[in-house]
Amino acid sequence: MSKNAKVFPLNEVINNVTLLHLSNKVENLERRHKQTCEMAVRSILHALDYKDHYTFGHSMRVAFYALIIGKEIGLTNQELYALELTALCHDIGKIGIPDSILLKPTRLDDRELGIMKTHPVKSAEILGDFTYFGHIVNFVKHHHERYDGKGYPDGISEDDIPLFSRIILVTDTFDAMTSSRPYRKGLDTNIAFDELVRFSGTQFDPLIVTNFLKAMAKEHMKQVGTFSLNIVNGRFKKDAA
Ligand SMILES: [Fe+2]
Questions:
Q1: Residue 106 belongs to some domain of the structure
Q2: Fewer Cβ within 10 Å of end Cβ, the chain: N or C?
Q3: For 145-166, how does the pLDDT look when each residue is reduced to its tens digit (9 = 90+)?
Q4: 52: left (phi > 0), else alpha (psi -120 to 50), else beta?
């Protein structure tokens, strides 16, 4: 051993090894906790799929659209993960809406509409049971707030609405407009884009609409008809028709 070599006291070496061991253990526990929570999300979505197959597919597409906006505005990977969770879970509260309203093929009356409008709060309540999802509960709760403050449940406006909620409103509305339902055919994507622009600044955050159009133009260039997500397995069709 050279003269200059540092000799560590034995108790310091033992402490360092113990710390490393503990930090590996914590990392493993965190990874397992995350996997368990993701399993819970997939189970809840599975239940939603049985309840209303349309809303399940809609949630997958909303997650895809939200992620391309997130990438367009430069969100970090951690933020993209939270955005995907928000998008996947935004409508899970529909599990708590009676079938006679949720699956009604004709226009909802005022009473039914009032019940339907409780779904964002119900989504937040379901997620609120998991401490792991605490950071996205508020984003889910506010996904029907309008930029001009005329949305629900709280009627908040502009930057008071969480960014992820503003993203979900744009993508949610776009998918709802372009999806074909038994009682009506989905709108052409270009007409739906025009509608987003028309209601930009009233219903929607203009910056989100601009970035969505940019991101969709890039997606169109790729000529790929399917997409995959991080939290839910499988490939999904981009076409909602
Ligand atoms: Fe919704």
A1: yes
A2: N
A3: 999 999 999 999 999 999 999 9
A4: beta
In the predicted model, is pLDDT for residue 2 greater than 60?
no
Helix (H, G, I), strand (E, B) or coil at 73: coil
Number of folded domains in the chain? 1
How many angstroms is it from 50 CA to the middle of ligand 1? Answer: 17
Instruction: Specify whether the CB–CB gap between 145 and 155 falls below 8 A.
Output: yes
- Spatial distance between the Cα atoms of 147 and 136, rounded to a whole number of angstroms: 19
Residue bearing the bigger pLDDT, 11 or 51: 51
In the predicted model, what is the mean pLDDT of residues 65-89? 97
Distance 80 CA to ligand 1 centre (A): 20
Distance 5 CA to ligand 1 centre (A): 65
* pLDDT tens digits, 6-29: 777 778 877 877 888 888 888 888
Query: Which of 149, 150, 153, 159 is closest to 140 using CA atoms?
Result: 153
State the Cα–Cα distance between residues 51 and 32, nearest whole angstrom. 29
3-state percent breakdown (helix, strand, coil) of the chain, nearest 5: 65, 5, 30
Position 97 pLDDT exceeds 60 = yes
Structural domain range at position 15 = 10-237
The Cα–Cα gap between 86 and 82 comes to 6
Ligand 1 centre from 123 Cα, in Å? 9
- Residue 172 Cα to ligand 1 midpoint, Å, equals 7
Is 44 a member of any domain? yes
CB atoms within 10 A of CB 199: 17
How many other C-beta atoms lie within 10 A of the C-beta of residue 66? Answer: 26
